């Protein structure tokens, strides 16, 4: 008697709990229905490929598929790491990424700092509108512009150099200028847009700080060092973390489009190599092994950088 | 920095320097675009006479544009790109909105799990090869859908939209609910009209992505008649023989050097984007900021 009396309310509560869950689900059914297409998209085109990474451990054959292809353990990874190409690819990738971090983040920041000094509204607006523009153009178009300036025989710069009696260099097929070319076109394309985020951070700095500093006799440079730069440090660190996490990406879109056989020694990066081997030559397993390597390093870097940022007193990404 | 006191001479020199550098950077950004537009509209003999360099052309011609628009290849690519841009952007916005709206409701059970699952895809991905194999497996190869479905939602854009929805006043939605609006009616009649700035911003982001898309074209399409504009443009720039790429007889091009035609095609790809983005500028700056604040 006592037993059943004790058991009954528990049973009731459990049932009520289940009923409540069902009722909540029913109440929000439309919200759940809304999410279905998006969730399906993520499952199919993001999560299935994650499981598709198993082809890196197989001798994948397109006809046999993932279920039919033989497993080879770490053979593909051994092939990759012992290949003489690999150190070159790593070097090109990291070098290009580091160049990009330095020569993108600094121009973005400097442009924002300079725009922040401007008080003539229309001038500021014009400079911003002009410099945002290239962000919205494709790398193919930028390649077309480079072509218009440097094409052998007809480009603006090429013709100018020839008229001056100098030997024109073909920047697209010359190893010594290929990397600077990538970086300079990247500055041209992305600096204006990249400055937006710093401008926002600058606008958020408490203006009273400047007034107080000015009353204390701080000049412009002092204000820059002691108020402005500390005020945007957080944003800078945040962007740095994000970029460090993508250090093995090195700007695939741009590099693939600018790349040609003559500059493989300095321009071929992990992604372009994966693309050539995988999509163009239809070998899937070894490139997928490089992909696994890339994804894992990226994950470790983002998590690690985030942890360091938090330790340094910043807020990190999450 | 605010002006509090009269500027000293050294301040004025610094200011002068800043204005000059900014003006130069602005012009440097503009010049390459101006140059290709000028080259594409100027008879090539005049370009050559000026050593490739001319700021204001004396005569204008539409010959290069006539050739590319009568060729068949560029108009078809333009058609594919327009279709993919319009249809793709509409689908992008629809699916992103439908996903971001429920995820903006903190009370929704299961919300955090879905959100974490989505954010994780920003940290770890299968990469190029498994994605390619998935697209192949789902039967999108050699269809227009290969240019649309694999990029249906951009996680970054979705998070921006979710943050925007969270910033909307909840009272309005609650009032609508009290008046008998269901979730569908609330979203369509209340939330969407309040969200036009974010729709414009993300519409621009998605639209530009479709307009500029190159990789889906070369990865998933073999059928040349489905090639989007950027793929055709790239093939045209790198080829010495424009006539073959345009599929028109050489004789039709005899008067025109390949450079004019190449630059005219570049201009066709540039102009629509350049016409649209300044009008959406005030929106996308706000959109960027919302995204940046919450990350």
From TrEMBL, chain A:
GO biological process, one term: transmembrane transport
Subcellular location: Cell membrane
Keyword vocabulary terms for this entry: Cell membrane, Membrane, Transmembrane, Transmembrane helix, Transport
ABC transmembrane type-1 domain residues: 90-305
One Pfam family it belongs to: BPD_transp_1
CC terms in the record's Gene Ontology section: plasma membrane
Main location: membrane
InterPro entries: MetI-like (IPR000515), MetI-like_sf (IPR035906), UgpAE/MalFG_permease (IPR050809)
Transmembrane segments: 30-48, 94-115, 136-161, 181-203, 224-242, 284-305
Membrane topology qualifier: Multi-pass membrane protein
Tagged with keyword Transmembrane helix: yes
Highest taxon above the source species: Bacteria
The family this protein is said to belong to: Belongs to the binding-protein-dependent transport system permease family.
Record protein name field: Protein LplB
Organism: Paenibacillus azoreducens
Name of the gene: lplB_2
Automatic annotation (TrEMBL), chain B:
Record-level GO BP terms: transmembrane transport
Membrane-topology descriptor: Multi-pass membrane protein
Localization per Swiss-Prot or TrEMBL: Cell membrane
Record-linked PROSITE patterns: ABC_TM1 (PS50928)
Signal peptide: none
GO CC terms in record: plasma membrane
Keywords (A to Z) from UniProt: Cell membrane, Membrane, Transmembrane, Transmembrane helix, Transport
Residue ranges annotated for the ABC transmembrane type-1 domain, each copy included: 78-280
One Pfam assignment: BPD_transp_1
Major localisation: membrane
TM stretches of this protein: 20-41, 80-101, 113-132, 144-165, 186-206, 261-280
Name of the protein this chain belongs to: ABC transporter permease protein YtcP
């Amino acid at each position: 008697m006592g037993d059943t009396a004790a058991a009954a309310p528990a049973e009731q509560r459990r049932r009520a709990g289940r009923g409540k869950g069902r009722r909540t689900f029913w109440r929000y059914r439309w919200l759940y229905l809304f999410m279905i297409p998006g969730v399906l998209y993520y499952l199919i085109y993001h999560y299935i490929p994650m499981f598709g990474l198993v082809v890196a451990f197989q001798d994948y054959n397109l006809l046999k598929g993932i279920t039919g292809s033989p497993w080879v353990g770490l053979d593909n990874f051994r092939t990759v790491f012992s290949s003489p190409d690999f150190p070159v690819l790593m070097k090109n990738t990291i070098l290009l990424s580091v160049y990009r971090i330095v020569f993108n983040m600094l121009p973005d920041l400097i442009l924002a700092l300079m725009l922040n000094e401007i008080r003539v509204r229309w001038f500021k607006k014009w400079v911003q509108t002009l410099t945002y523009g290239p962000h919205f153009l494709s790398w193919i178009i930028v390649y077309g512009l480079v072509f218009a300036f440097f094409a052998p025989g007809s480009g603006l710069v090429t013709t100018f150099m020839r008229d001056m009696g100098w030997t024109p260099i073909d920047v697209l097929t010359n190893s010594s200028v290929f990397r600077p070319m990538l970086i300079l076109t990247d500055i041209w394309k992305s600096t204006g847009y990249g400055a937006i985020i710093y401008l926002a951070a600058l606008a958020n700095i408490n203006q009273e700080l400047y007034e107080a500093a000015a009353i204390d006799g701080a000049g412009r440079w002092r204000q820059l060092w002691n108020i402005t730069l500390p005020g945007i440090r957080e944003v800078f660190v945040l962007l740095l973390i994000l970029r460090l996490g993508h250090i093995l990406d090195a700007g695939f879109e741009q590099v693939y489009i600018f790349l040609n056989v003559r500059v493989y020694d300095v321009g071929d990066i992990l992604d372009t190599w994966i693309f050539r081997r995988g999509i163009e030559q239809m070998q899937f397993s070894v490139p997928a092994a490089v992909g696994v390597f890339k994804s894992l390093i990226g994950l470790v870097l983002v998590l690690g950088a985030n942890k360091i940022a938090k330790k340094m007193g910043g807020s990190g990404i999450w | 920095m605010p002006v509090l006191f009269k500027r000293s001479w050294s301040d004025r020199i610094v200011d002068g320097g800043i204005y000059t550098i900014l003006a130069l950077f602005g012009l440097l950004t503009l010049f390459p675009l101006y140059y290709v537009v000028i080259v594409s509209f100027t008879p090539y003999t005049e370009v050559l006479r000026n050593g490739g360099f001319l700021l204001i052309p004396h005569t204008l011609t539409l010959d290069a544009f006539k050739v590319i628009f009568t060729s068949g290849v560029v108009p078809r690519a333009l058609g594919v790109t327009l279709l993919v841009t319009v249809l793709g952007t509409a689908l992008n916005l629809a699916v992103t909105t439908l996903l971001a709206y429920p995820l903006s409701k903190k009370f929704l059970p299961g919300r955090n799990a879905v959100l974490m699952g989505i954010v994780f895809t920003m940290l770890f991905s299968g990469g190029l090869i498994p994605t390619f194999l998935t697209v192949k497996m789902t039967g999108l190869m050699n269809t227009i859908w290969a240019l649309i479905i694999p990029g249906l939602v951009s996680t970054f854009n979705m998070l921006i939209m979710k943050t925007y929805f969270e910033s909307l006043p909840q009272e309005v939605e609650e009032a609508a609910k009290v008046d008998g609006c269901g979730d569908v009616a609330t979203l369509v009649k209340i939330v969407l009209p309040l969200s036009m700035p974010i729709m414009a911003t993300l519409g621009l982001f998605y639209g530009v992505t479709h307009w500029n898309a190159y990789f889906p074209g070369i990865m998933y399409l073999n059928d040349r008649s489905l090639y989007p504009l950027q793929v055709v443009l790239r093939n045209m720039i790198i080829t010495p023989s424009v006539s073959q790429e345009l599929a028109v007889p050489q004789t039709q091009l005899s008067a025109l050097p390949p450079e004019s035609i190449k630059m005219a095609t570049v201009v066709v790809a540039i102009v629509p984007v350049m016409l649209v983005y300044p009008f959406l500028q005030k929106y996308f700056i706000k959109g960027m900021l919302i995204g940046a604040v919450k990350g």
